[in-house]
Amino acid sequence: MEDGEVSGTNHTHAETGYDPAYEWPGNTEIPQSTTVLNESLSSTFKPWFLLRLLVQTSSVLPRVQRLAVLDEHKEVQFGRDVAPAGSGTPRVRLKEMAVSKLHATMFWDAGRREWAVVDMGSKHGSFLRPGGYSGPTVNVGEDLGARLSPSRVASFPRALKHEDTLTIGSTTFVVHIHSDRMSCEGCASSGSGDNIIPLFPASKGVKRTREEVGPIPSEGRDAKKALTMLKRTLLSRHDTARSSASGQPSSYVDRSAKRRALFPSSPLDTPGAPRPKNDSPSAASSGSTQIPEAAAPPQPLPVSNIGRQLLMKQGWQPGTALGSGENASGLVEPLEVSATSNRSGLGMPEKAPTPSSGDWRESGKHKRWADMIDKK
Predict the structure, then answer these.
(1) How far is CA 310 from CA 300, 315, 325, 326, in A?
(2) By the 8 A CB rule, do 144 and 167 touch?
């Protein structure tokens, strides 16, 4: 065979050194023990990296709770409110006004095989600082890191690395991510589990369930009969409370007499009506009724009065009416206003005093009789 010539394809197995016995037969059955082993591994193996959050600083979380364990979850939420009832997504609750109801979310990105964080459009924002930062741990100013998104705008997913710090409100978390799913000394939980932050709301055991109260059989249940029994139960409780209260002796209390004793000088509300005489302690203690003071007679304006000085500059003289010539027909003396008593208005005639025997009931009778006469 010369150089460059291509050899033919008809070769024997002896020439090429190929033997069909070397081929894999295929469709071999897997032993039962191997299948069981694979099923057990698939139930315990988690495809995501181990994630734990270590609390660095916080003013809302208890001092004992310093670790959030997320080994069995590939998503966690952060917010001010409790997770909705029946929700299977864990939530770290931070009860402060700087945290929104649903503030941020951490999740495992299966496509990129990394943990990421998203701000859900919070008002005060979420701050991420890369790992390896050696500055102070006080959450002030630029030490918080970069803000994920503007106020009330959801952010894009940001990848999380080991020892990154995430600040939400006044709480700063240190992110611990381990690809081998083995916790380090810094993120290891205590034996009792007291330092673990609860991810789900604790169920309240104080409420009595329907089984404890006594279930009502659905078959043959009469709603009308049940309502009647409920009314009887509530009425019996009310009767028991009334009987216990009626066992104590009760006496009538004249609150009007107490009020008159506390406020003896309170005026009447009826204009023009004379103050009736009563036999209350206040009337006995006062002894005499108050007589309104008479108004002082009008006095001429003094020389120092500014109004008088202005009128005199315009030609007015004391003792003359306002105006000049024929127009000077005004009053020289001002109108006199007579003082009224018993809150009566202007122009109300004075009534003759009615005889009274000292009793306010008799005084009322005489007053009503006088009113009837006036109307006739």
Answers:
(1) 16, 9, 20, 22
(2) yes
Give the single-character DSSP code of 72: T
Q: What is the dihedral of CA 120, 121, 123, 126, to 10 degrees?
A: 50
Nearest to 65 by CA among 80, 53, 74, 75: 53
Q: How far is residue 53 from each of residues 115, 147, 189, 359, measured CA to CA in Å?
A: 12, 19, 11, 88
Q: What pLDDT score does 129 carry?
A: 93
User: Do 321 and 329 touch, CB atoms closer than 8 A?
Assistant: yes
Closest CA to 165 of 17, 246, 58: 58
DSSP one-letter code for 368: H
pLDDT tens by residue, 301-329: 888 999 888 888 888 888 787 766 666 66
- Range with the lowest mean pLDDT among 117-131, 211-225, 256-270? 211-225
Which burial class, exposed, middle or buried, applies to 68 when counting CB atoms under 10 A from its CB (0-12, 13-18, 19+)?
A: buried
Gap between the Cα atoms of 48 and 236, Å rounded = 62
Each residue of 56-82: pLDDT tens digit?
999 999 999 999 999 889 999 999 999
Structure tokens at 303: 């020389």
* More confidently predicted of 306 and 354: 306
Helices (H), the chain: 13-16, 32-44, 210-213, 223-246, 255-262, 281-286, 306-313, 360-375
Residue type, 312: M
Note the helical H segments in 146-280: 210-213, 223-246, 255-262
Choose among 287, 291, 285, 276: nearest CA to 357. 276
Structure tokens that stand for 289 in this block:
């009724």
